[in-house]
User: What shape does this take?
Amino acid sequence: MAMVIPQFVLRELQYIADSPDPVKRTRGKRGLDILQRIQKQVSCGVTITDKDFPDIKEVDGKLLALAKVLNAKVVTNDSNLNKIAELQGVSVLNLNQLATAMRPAILPGEVMNILILKEGKEQGQGIGYLEDGTMVVIDNAKRHMGRNVDVAVTSVLQTASGRMIFSKLKEEVKGEVYHQAAN
Assistant: This one.
């Protein structure tokens, strides 16, 4: 697979990386770092193109115009760009959808070990996270904050902003059979 990175995208990333806003600056630097890592991948040929569309002001519009000219797919995690590209007939590889598809399935009944980092919204709840950032809500776990505990998954909820896992402390589950989640 060959990847084409337009010079106008690099300029925008540099502009964001130089922003006085620390959040924007961090995002811009991360974007540049990721592109640099992709470029070093032996299996992925990366080309930087100077092709530009001076009559189009927005970077998203330029990107879609370039994709049409090259008959290429746009790779993005921007849901609005994704929608506009699809409306204009440009193929898209959505990184968020790809990441979601690659997450391991978590099913009710699985047991996992979670570090309780903070209290939840409901009384007594504890909150922890999987490596992929998925939030795990654990009933009656507030008292275990700062410690790892074994939990049994009770349900999984997919939301617009990601997946949430609800669970109970394994020690509080009586007479139910659970199996160990593969890590």
